[in-house]
Amino acid sequence: MNIKRKIIIDTDPGQDDAVAILMALASTELEVLGITAVAGNVPLNLTEKNSCIVVELSGRTDVPVFSGCSTPLVRNLVTAEEVHGKTGLDGMKPVEPSIPLEEKHATDFIIETLLANNPGTITLCPLGPLTNIAQAMIQAPEIIKRIQEIVLMGGAYFEVGNVTPAAEFNIYVDPEAAEKVFSSGVPITVLPLDVTHQVLTTETRVDIVRNIGNKVGQEVANLMTFFERFDKEKYGLDGAPLHDPCVIAYLLEPEIFDGRYVNVEIETQSKLTRGMTVVDWWGVTDREPNCLFVGKADSTRFFELLTEKLRLLP
Ligand code: RIB
Ligand code: CA
């Protein structure tokens, strides 16, 4: 019998976050212990609400949702309504969630869950700025050695930045949090723009999702259609990169991806390159490798897997 992988998804929904959460909640290979919301694409009052909306859409109302940090560790929040719309889930029919948020703070949930489970059995899956994860590490350093792995969407190297010429959004919003996580010694797998820009929501792929025949398929196609307009215009691509679902696909079928174990440092001092992931891809420094930096994906298999999972939902 296959053992389910226990994960916590930390997220700032965001259309691509929503697709990642749905994919995870459809997957019997994963035990989603909780969803923790963080400020990012839109402010926390919306990312926490959107997390509830997506959990409800999945039908998995057994999965608890926690609200976390409303601002980065030391900086002001930067949001991305120009990409995700005012609500953060533009494209979906507006709806009020009926499932409640948990009382407990997200960082307390992360800490308590890691302390209550055997070391090396919980994987953290951040899909937004790393504020909640870093805050939990600061609050309770004893959790660091208990984390099995951190599999995150963030950063960029050959693909360069998407919010500045140097930085990807999740790392840019809270570089200090990213520095804390990347220097923690926890095993880290990074799904950066280098790989997410290979998995594009082309018209054919969106049509397949729309025609799955369930409500989730309709709503995901609507989310993708709204979400893709920004990147299609900016990059002139025939679809938008589906960033966050790469994290879940990696957990389910790592063989879809390929990467290199390298050192990544985070720029926190420079105004010009704040949030840049400085990747020693060619091993030119003596800095110790600290993460698997993924650079390739089989986009055909990725979308087959995504569609297979969405088909399992209501
Ligand atoms: O740069 C892409 C990342 O920023 C994705 O996680 C997207 O949801 C936004 O949070
Ligand atoms: Ca996100």
List the helices and strands and how they pair.
Elements (H helix, E strand, L loop, with lengths): L4 E7 L3 H11 L4 E8 L6 H15 L6 E3 L13 H4 L21 H11 L5 E5 L4 H9 L7 E7 L15 H5 L1 H8 L5 E4 L1 H4 L6 H8 L4 H21 L9 H8 L4 E6 L1 E3 L10 E3 L11 E7 L1 H12 L4
Parallel strand pairs: 1-2, 1-4, 2-3, 4-5, 5-6, 6-10
Antiparallel strand pairs: 7-10, 8-9
The protein binds alpha-D-ribofuranose and calcium ion (CA).
Word description of this protein:
This protein is α/β, with parallel strands linked by helices. The chain has a single domain (5-310), classed as Inosine-uridine Nucleoside N-ribohydrolase, Chain A (Alpha-Beta Complex). Helices cover 37% and strands 17% of the residues. The protein has twelve helices and ten strands. Helix 1 links the parallel strand 1 (5-11) and strand 2. Helix 1 (15-25) runs parallel beside helix 2. It is globular. The mean pLDDT is 97.
Any idea of the CATH topology? Inosine-uridine Nucleoside N-ribohydrolase, Chain A
Order of helix and strand elements from N to C terminus = EHEHEHHEHEHHEHHHHEEEEH
The CATH superfamily turns out to be Ribonucleoside hydrolase-like
Shape: globular
Classify the helix fraction into a percent range. Answer: 25-40%
Q: What Rg, in angstroms, do the CA atoms define?
A: 18 Å
Number of domains: 1
The structural class is: alpha/beta
CATH A-level architecture: Alpha-Beta Complex
**Separation of the first and last Cα atoms:** 26 Å
Label this structure with key terms:
single chain, 314 residues, Inosine-uridine Nucleoside N-ribohydrolase, Chain A, 8-stranded mixed β-sheet, two-stranded antiparallel ribbon, 37% helix, globular, binds alpha-D-ribofuranose, binds calcium ion
